Amino acid sequence: PDADDDYSVCHPCGLTPESVADSLIKADIDLFICSYNPAATLQTEKELAMKYLGHRDNDEKREITAIPMVPESQSQKKHIIFVLDQSASMACDWAGVVAAYNHFIDWLCQKQRYSDLVSVVQFGTFADVTVKKQPILGIPSDLKFGCDHHTIFLPAAQSACILAKSTPPSHTPSIIFMSDGEVGDDDAKQAANRFSNFNTTLQDRLENELELNVIAFGSMACHTQLKHIANSSQNGRFHMSTDTAELSNLFVQIADAGFHVADLLEAEIGKRISDAVSDKLALE
């Protein structure tokens, strides 16, 4: 390759708003800034937009277009609460569950959701809070398997709701409940009622339904009981996962819900083209 194509040669001082704006204007390029985290990119957008608009060669006073990749209703920071079954039947799959959990965290980092908080409840007969409201850059990557021979849903539901209730006003709670088991019907009903009661509290406080994703893992999970828990909120969803590879993809799908990047970008570009055609026809 030519030496002039080398990044360090072209930009010995790195990229600056001035150099970026200058290159764009000289090449007659319109810029779309697509942000997954407008709060994190706001200052960069402002500086670049100012340099672009005020550039001496920008005679048409064109402006940079900012496109938030997250709908405004979903742009609020989240407190994500994992509720993970660690009963004896999960022993062989636990390493894969932890890998799926880390894949989810990596996805949050990739999308620059550094303000999100994560908590983890691990449960069998009892429930243990092993991660509590930690920023994603500070959470442990290893979740120790505290093998428990039995599964009971109610303690896990109670711990999850206590964590959700402690969510800071700047965040909204989002619960991911995963189990491979079946419990007594009374226990399942009590767990569902616990989530339903918290959902009512959340509606009164935030006028919003609890985001609750419930996952039936493996072939032995009781779908009826887990669906009942998911139905505790109108914003509840029931999912199935046969193995940890599918679980990893499912975690990301849950996190990615609402991120319709291609549709947003296509709509914005279409609008820009339509406006340009209208302006041209008006001039003619």
What does this structure look like?
InterPro entries: VWF_A, vWFA_dom_sf. Residues 79-254 form the VWFA domain. This protein has helices at residues 7-10, 17-26, 38-53, 94-110, 153-165, 185-206, 223-230, 244-256, 261-283, and strands spanning 32-35, 65-68, 77-85, 117-123, 127-135, 171-179, 211-217, 236-241. It is of the alpha/beta class and 284 residues long. The chain folds into two domains: 3-70, no CATH class; 73-256, von Willebrand factor, type A domain (Rossmann fold, 3-Layer(aba) Sandwich). The strands form two sheets. The chain has a six-stranded mixed β-sheet with strand order 5-4-3-6-7-8, with helices on both faces. A two-stranded parallel sheet has the order 1-2.
Short description:
With 284 residues, the protein is of the alpha/beta class. Helix content is 44%, strand content 19%.
Q: What is the count of structural domains?
A: 2
Number of helices: 9
State the low-pLDDT regions, or none: none
Question: Helices and strands: which structural class?
Answer: alpha/beta
Instruction: Name the overall outline.
Output: elongated
Mean pLDDT: 85
What's the CATH superfamily of the largest domain, by name? von Willebrand factor, type A domain
Number of strands: 8
What order do the helices and strands follow?
A: HHEHEEHEEHEHEHEHH
CATH topology descriptor of the largest domain: Rossmann fold
Domain VWFA: 79-254
InterPro entries: VWF_A (IPR002035), vWFA_dom_sf (IPR036465)
Protein name: VWFA domain-containing protein
